[in-house]
Description:
This protein is mainly alpha-helical. The chain has one domain (3-133). The chain is built from 6 helices and no strands. The protein is globular. The model has no long low-confidence stretch (mean pLDDT 80).
Amino acid sequence: xxxxxxxxxxxxxxxxxxxxxxxxxxxxxxxxxxxxxxxxxxxxxxxxxxxxxxxxxxxxxxxxxxxxxxxxxxxxxxxxxxxxxxxxxxxxxxxxxxxxxxxxxxxxxxxxxxxxxxxxxxxxxxxxxxxxxx
Length: 134
């Protein structure tokens, strides 16, 4: 493993550990940012247990999500809850709370797409460097 790859893993682990939802960030953008970090770590051969990821997401949510987090922790078995199921449940709850805001604004959609493009570029660069390391 090269020094650059080790440095990249350390940087991503730090991002993972310090990850929190931004104050006015949508759940869609937050889940995209988090998925990007986890996927990049997977590409670099660093994996996390599903339960750890689920608990990390629940801890990372803003205070507005506290009631939903409490309900989920008390009513669900977090050891068997996948990341996709968790995000799905949170998105469903978000839609119920904000029916009038169910359609994200054009700016928010653009920002999420912009972040996705940036993530894709990073993933491609990471894969390219992994192939060069072999």
